[in-house]
């Protein structure tokens, strides 16, 4: 087996915008320079107020070993930013990738977007609402979207249901989405199905949060009803965090599923 030092290379802390640490990205690339590789841009989770790109080194290492260029991004977090600013910065990161990734061995015409938890929400949001890439000044370049246990596909429904229940997460979420119910709907990919023009692959943990188990099948049904391409797989025995930490191991089956997805295979 080839060692990691000759299979992949890491390029750390590249600035995609003028925002300090909140606007940096890391690139993990195969050392094979004979061709351009598919690109996966990853948006981390953390309830929109925590998390950082550096945590996900294992995704970069494993995807690069499997022939992908992997880009992990930072973005501004609450309470310093709300969902719109997060979305605009994520779109700017994708723009930077589109314009620069070729020099790092990535194919700018084969960019895929992946997100876990709140990162899944942001991935779906910027892919489906045209205002985010419009403000970045580019046409949406995303060829497909991978959502790993996404939280917040219908933040409107979640907040309306939970706001008066003593839910410990609601105060933090209100800092991200405000108390304006119009913003809750604007922030919900569930109501932007018509904006989908590329395939989706979704994974959900069997033991994840009830809201995720409730919303993802509805999202899938709405996509299918609108003749959008989508798949949803329930991963047995996995809780919310386990849905991403299982990918520490390069033999995890999600890598093969995702690689087939980027090749257009079922």
Short description:
The chain is an alpha/beta fold. It contains 11 helices and 8 strands.
Describe this protein's structure.
- By secondary structure, the chain is of the alpha/beta class.
- It has one domain: Alpha/Beta hydrolase fold, catalytic domain (Rossmann fold).
- It is 38% helix and 21% strand.
- It has eleven helices and eight strands.
- The protein has helices at residues 4-7, 57-65, 83-100, 118-128, 131-136, 155-162, 170-177, 181-186, 210-225, 242-245, 253-262, and strands at 8-15, 24-30, 37-43, 69-73, 106-116, 142-148, 200-205, 230-235.
- Strands 1-2-4-3-5-6-7-8 form an eight-stranded mixed beta sheet, sandwiched between helices.
- Strand 3 (37-43), helix 2 (57-65) and strand 4 form a beta-alpha-beta unit.
- Helix 3 packs across helix 4 (118-128).
- The longest helix is centred in the middle third of the chain and has 18 residues, at 83-100.
- Residues 25-220 form the BD-FAE-like domain.
- Keywords: Hydrolase.
- GO terms for molecular function: hydrolase activity.
- InterPro entries: AB_hydrolase_fold, BD-FAE-like_dom, GDXG_lipolytic_enzyme.
């Amino acid at each position: 087996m080839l060692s990691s030092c000759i299979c992949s290379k890491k390029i750390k802390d590249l600035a995609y915008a003028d925002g300090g640490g909140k606007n940096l990205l890391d690139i993990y690339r195969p050392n094979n320079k004979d061709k351009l590789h598919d690109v996966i841009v990853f948006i981390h989770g953390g309830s929109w107020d925590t998390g950082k790109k550096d945590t996900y080194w294992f995704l970069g290492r494993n995807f690069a070993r499997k022939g992908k260029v992997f880009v992990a991004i930072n973005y501004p977090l609450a309470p310093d930013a709300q969902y719109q600013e997060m979305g605009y910065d994520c779109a700017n990161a994708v723009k930077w990738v589109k314009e620069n990734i070729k020099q790092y061995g990535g194919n700018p015409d084969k960019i895929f977007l992946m997100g876990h938890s709140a990162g899944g929400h942001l991935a779906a949001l910027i892919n489906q609402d045209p205002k985010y890439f419009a403000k970045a000044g580019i046409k949406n370049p995303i060829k497909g979207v991978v959502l790993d246990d996404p939280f917040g596909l219908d933040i409107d429904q979640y907040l309306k249901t939970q706001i008066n229940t003593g839910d410990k997460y609601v105060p933090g979420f209100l800092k991200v989405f405000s108390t304006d119910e119009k913003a809750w709907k604007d922030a919900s990919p569930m109501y932007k199905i018509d904006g989908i023009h590329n395939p989706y692959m979704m994974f959900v943990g069997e033991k994840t949060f009830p809201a995720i188990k409730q919303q993802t099948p509805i999202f899938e049904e709405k996509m299918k009803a609108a003749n959008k391409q989508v798949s949803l797989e329930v991963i047995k025995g996995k809780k919310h965090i386990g849905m991403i930490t299982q990918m520490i191991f390069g033999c995890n089956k999600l890598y093969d599923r995702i690689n087939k997805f980027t090749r257009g295979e079922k």
